[in-house]
Amino acid sequence: MTKKHLALFVLFALLITAIVLLVPQTQQTAGVIPPATVYNRSEETSSVEKPCSNEHPEWREAQTIEGVEIAPAPACEPDNPYEVAASVKGTNNISMGTLMQTDLAQDALIMGEDTDQDGDPDIIHIKLEVVELNGASPDGEFLIDTYPIAPGIQPGLWVYAPKSRGMAVKNFQSQVANRLLRAPSPTIRVEQGDKVYITLENTHYLPHTIHLHGVDHAWHNAAGEDNDGVEEHPVFPGKSHTYEIQPRHAGTMLYHCHVQTAQHFMMGLNGMFVVEENRPNNWVQTFNVGAGQVRHPSVAVKADYSQEYDLLYQSIDKKLAQIIQNASDPRLIAQRMSRDYNMTESFENYFMLNGHSFPYTLRDSIINVGDNEAIKLRIANTQRTAVAIHFHGHKATITAYDGVDQPEGLRLTRDVFDIAPAQRIDLKLLTQNNGVNSYGPGLWMFHDHVPTGTTSDGMEPGGNMALLAYKQLVDEQGMPKMHDEMLGEVFSKDYYAKKQAPWNQGDFKHLLGDAGLIAPPYWQIIAFGLAAGLLVGLVLVFAIKRK
């Protein structure tokens, strides 16, 4: 090929490229399109969801199962009451019919004898597993055991879960995790003085431990083995280890993995651990799956409060979470998480309350209240950064820090509560309409007042926003009234994928929505015409010379 031919070839290539790039449309999107947050694969075909699926409305009712009184739960997605009953009585003390209404294994929770003869079991055997959510499947280009934290958002997560049976997914046609397998790791409740055996059966592909943060425990178990769950004694895949405790001190504590703590903690391996006061006939709800409302409070809590809620705040770095979505080989995951990923350069993209971000927090994290109630709130911060939890319309009182009760004279009443990473506080929230404790009935927001806390990868409203809702302002499906227009916008994958304007509906859409379509600029039309004409001319000249 001569230099002349080469030059012509290059010119042809450049002209064709310019024509493709400059081809004008009759209309084009105005303005600059922001970088997209592409949502992950899903079984949903529509970008818009119903605010409440209303899958199990019968679970919301107050009921008695296996002799266990279960409080009503008006939320859209209440916990399975059969799992509540099993969490109170133990899987060994319920009928097979009740057990089959759960996803719990037969040995997930074994209640032993009543050693102090006060009417409740004092020897407790708990079995936990490590479950991966939204991880890569080795069988294809899709995620498995999917668990969205908000519309279209499925970050990779690890959680502790009670030992389960059957399939991890809802059914044979689904890739969605069953209800037992979800974030956050369940709140675990035991009674002061109980002899508790917690066995980690590690069915995961990486080593893990359970560290009982703030819980009274000996350094060695009875066999002289590790009892502190530290990194030096990991439980490797396919192995199990039992931690033994007999806590003398009641309060709100934590548990978490202490293998490569920074990464595993941020991946979701943490949960609340509550030691209840020892009282007669005190059958506590050992697992509060998904946290949120405690449907069978302890004797001590019921003596002073009308309701109890567990509130666990978490954050996710999407760069860390994507590691398990881009590989299924444990060696690659270990390399990318342990050596390639730098925790000191981490960033928090997603902020969750009880395993969900807004608007999914409206499904299971609404605090439903009536007038003149006393509500107990246990709050834990497992984010990488501090939170500043603010309640609209109410001021609550701190009754305990890190599981230690505060004397009456040191109890602070505030509307913003600073909570450092791994710190816990207990609050007493009164709905007495006196201008201090409560300003009256409403749909009062509560959220992290650190500005990023109410965003999901930069989109607001998102993050850990939720509602303290008075019962008369919640509909029969547990969703807030008077919010139809907003719910129609935010229950959309396109909203959090940044494909939809925040005010895309209503009378002001033309002012605040997308700018719409405009004609392409004249320079683009002229440049396209010149490039196309030059190309045609060159082709004709070349064809004539060839003759």
Can you put this structure into words, describing what you see?
It comes from Methylovulum psychrotolerans. The protein is an alpha+beta fold and 547 residues long. The protein has twelve helices and 29 strands. The strands form seven sheets. Strands 16, 17, 18, 20, 22, 23, 24 and 26 form an eight-stranded mixed beta sheet that branches. Strands 4, 5, 8, 10 and 12 form a five-stranded mixed beta sheet that branches. A five-stranded mixed beta sheet has the order 11-13-14-9-15. A hairpin with a 2-residue loop joins strand 2 (63-65) and strand 3 (68-70). The longest helix has 25 residues, at 522-546.
For this entry, give a set of tags:
single chain; 547 residues; alpha+beta; Immunoglobulin-like; eight-stranded mixed β-sheet; five-stranded mixed β-sheet
Rounded to the nearest angstrom, the radius of gyration is 28 Å
Note poorly predicted spans.
30-43
Just name the CATH architecture of the largest domain.
Sandwich
Shape summary: globular
What is the CATH C level class of the largest domain, in words? Mainly Beta
Mean pLDDT across residues:
91
- Work out the strand percent: 15-25%
Layout of helices and strands, plus pairs?
Elements: H1 3-22, E1 28-29, E2 63-65, E3 68-70, H2 81-89, H3 96-99, E4 109-111, E5 123-133, E6 135-136, E7 143-144, E8 157-162, E9 187-191, E10 195-201, E11 211-213, E12 240-245, E13 251-256, H4 261-266, E14 270-276, E15 287-288, E16 292-293, H5 299-304, E17 307-316, H6 318-321, H7 330-340, E18 350-353, H8 361-364, E19 367-369, E20 374-381, E21 387-391, E22 396-401, E23 404-405, E24 413-414, E25 416-419, E26 424-430, E27 443-448, E28 466-470, H9 484-490, H10 493-496, H11 509-512, E29 517-518, H12 522-546
Parallel strand pairs: 5-10, 9-14, 17-20, 19-28
Antiparallel strand pairs: 1-29, 2-3, 4-5, 5-8, 6-7, 9-15, 10-12, 11-13, 13-14, 16-17, 17-18, 20-26, 21-25, 21-27, 22-23, 22-24, 22-26, 27-28
